[in-house]
Amino acid sequence: MDLGIRGRSALVTGAGRGIGRQICLTLAEEGVRVVVNDLFEDRAEEVAGEISRAGGDAIGASADVTDSEAVNGMVTRVADQFGSVDILVNNAGIPAISARDAVPATGGFFAGSGPEQWQRTMGLITYGVLNCSRAVIEGMSERCWGRIINIISDAGRVGEPRLVAYSMAKAGVIGFSKALAKELGRSGVTVNCVSPATTETEATAAWLAAQGEQIMRQYPLAKGLNRLGKPSDIANAVAFLSSDRAEWITGQVLSVNGGYSMPD
Asked: How far is CA 153 from the centre of its chain?
């Protein structure tokens, strides 16, 4: 199936490893020119190099997405090299496992948390999305084509104990996405969310090694497939929503979660 995005350009945030890295690799396989963003320059360059060695077109772009000036500067540099940002994937965020373990003395429950944890969680998840989206929407609207895909979490759809602030932040991104989709639809720009649950990445490796068997019981598909979610599961959904095949889909949340939760 031709997704119709060969030659487009994509900016993927938080892409130095895990889900973000795989999104970059998958888009590059579809012929997309990829900007690999990460807070850590070496990670961004490593993924960009991996794509280039495989015959793709990619550059690394280190920037703190919570800093609007840094984001604007990054988008300007991208425009100089690629001409535009056609696809934005807001992937940067705090892994759920990290958010939960931020207050280990109380088991991660909300009563033991405080402003320091809230600000870190809300800042990266919400302001990263706001800053990056604001930096690209004018260009997308002028070209009457654009895709914004926000990586959220089922915690934002159904809520999760010990992830209260995290659930709030992700739920906010859902509301933002739906509202922005209504604003930008008249310009041919779509805005959607992809919602993973537990995914096997570097950030979750130790946790899954200790509790993987117990966690797998919560996923209807896990027993049948003998696995939990993989970064490629999320990346494939992102590639589809980035494509011309998905041009009539906007303001939606696609859960890629092995059946962990099934919200309406």
From this structure: 9
Q: What is the DSSP string of 7-67?
A: T-EEEESS-SSHHHHHHHHHHHHTT-EEEEEESSHHHHHHHHHHHHHTT--EEEEE--TT-
Find the catalytic residue in 127, 166, 219, 260. Answer: 166
- Domain with 169, as residue range(s), is 9-204+231-256
Catalytic residue status for 166:
yes
Which amino acid is located at 9 in the chain?
S
What CA–CA distance (Å, rounded) separates 264 from 128? 27
Residue 236 lies in a domain: yes
Neighbours of 17 (CB within 10 A): 17
How many Cα atoms occupy the beta-carbon half-sphere of 106 within 13 Å?
13
pTM over 0.85: yes
Confidence of residue 210 (pLDDT cuts 50, 70, 90): low
